[in-house]
Design brief:
Layout lengths: L6 E4 L5 H12 L3 E6 L2 H13 L3 E6 L5 H14 L5 E4 L19 H23 L3 E6 L20 H22 L5 E7 L7 H5 L8 H13 L10 E3 L2 E3 L8 H15 L4 H8 L2
Parallel strand pairs: 1-2, 1-4, 2-3, 4-5, 5-6, 6-7
Antiparallel strand pairs: 7-8
Helix pairs in contact: 1-2, 1-7, 3-4, 4-5, 4-9, 5-8, 5-9
Length: about 280
């Protein structure tokens, strides 16, 4: 994909692999909307991109709050008339044995890793469709666990690893569901596990010695965002640069419908897939 005159939004792009992706896409000619919670880090990331000759702006938002997600979408719509690439990268790792909740009372990892991206994508779909061909990339993980729809918020038997893995599988399920509904719109959506145990704060906080670099993970994310080989291809899951298969639940249409309806209820708006279906029925 030619990046000149393209606009890209990357959540969680003030540190780690998100920052590397922002820097590389900026260097490639894209206008980068940098997102994060920390204004100091956000401005530093923007300054790095601009120093390399790129264009960037920082947008602050705490994705543990659905109201903040909606506000972020409003800011994006106010700042740009087109959005060519949306990369849902922001996330919380496995660190922490104590169950936490976000501003809306939802389990924190499910809220930040999955629900925030679900809502942000839903809010920005009209802009993405108007910019077609456009791409959505959901940064998931090889660490996945089937969703227990009887206790999605993990009020029983909680641990950070289980919460993280459930939220990442939810991202993949959403990707497949949304791809089917966006068929024919010119907007594609794919997900990936960028690399195993990258050298990031998230990995170090979990007490794990990094196995791979953020450069490796960034390459995989950028591949989904820009590769000509993926033009028109949607609903896929990649392990790094290789097309792969996720857990069985991701391919269970009934489970995906259950997740879609749950997500719609939790965020209080029609799901992205329902919205697209209505627009193209």
């Amino acid at each position: 994909m030619e990046l000149k005159d393209k606009t890209v939004l990357i959540t969680g792009s003030t540190a780690g692999v998100g920052r590397m992706v922002a820097q590389r896409l900026g260097a490639g000619g894209a206008r980068v909307l940098v997102h994060g919670r920390d204004t100091t880090r956000g401005k530093a990331t923007v300054a790095e991109i601009e120093a390399a000759g790129g264009k960037a702006e920082f947008l602050a938002a705490d994705l543990s709050s659905l109201a903040e997600v909606r506000r972020l979408a409003e800011v994006v719509r106010a700042k740009t008339s087109r959005l060519d690439i949306l990369i849902n990268n922001a996330g919380i790792g496995t660190h922490g044995a104590k169950r936490q909740v976000g501003a809306d009372g939802y389990e924190l990892r499910f809220a930040v890793n999955y629900l925030a991206g679900f809502l942000l994508t839903t809010e920005l779909l009209p802009l993405l469709e108007a910019s077609a061909p456009a791409r959505i990339v959901n940064v998931a993980s090889a660490g996945r666990q089937a969703i227990d729809f009887g206790d999605v918020m993990l009020t029983h038997g909680y641990n950070g690893g289980r919460a993280y893995c459930q939220s990442k599988l939810a991202q993949i399920m959403f990707t497949i569901d949304l791809a089917q509904q966006l068929n024919g719109t010119g907007v594609t959506v794919n997900s990936l596990h960028p690399a195993s145990y990258m050298n990031t704060t998230m990995v170090r906080q979990a007490g794990i010695t990094p196995w791979s670099s953020v450069e490796t993970g960034a390459e995989a994310i950028i591949n989904l965002a820009t590769s000509p080989a993926l033009e028109g291809r949607s609903g896929l899951y990649f392990d790094g640069l290789r097309e792969s298969r996720a857990d069985d639940q991701a391919y269970d249409a009934k489970a995906r419908q259950q997740l879609r309806e749950l997500s719609q209820n939790l965020v209080g708006v029609p799901s992205a897939s329902h919205t697209a279906q209505e627009q193209h029925s």
